[in-house]
Amino acid sequence: MKPLLLNFNLNYNGFQEKDVLAVFKKNKPKPTEIVQGMTPDEIAEIVSERIMENIRAQFKNIAEQLQQRKPQ
Questions:
Q1: How many alpha carbons fall within 13 Å on the CB side of residue 22?
Q2: pTM of the model
Q3: CB count, 10 Å around CB of 40?
Q4: Nearest CA-CA partner of 47 in 59, 36, 33
């Protein structure tokens, strides 16, 4: 279903039509390596996941450092 936009200044489609039978499809494992022939969306997903892994690791390191500094 496409959204009804009352603001005509918004020139984008916020929703994409989904396959009705997508619920029954089995999820294939997500690729972790970028290979030739991938779509830009697939590449963006891999890059985003790698960036998020780095950010999570940084937060974990900072949390550990703060726990060590905390007076007991």
A1: 4
A2: 0.54
A3: 7
A4: 33
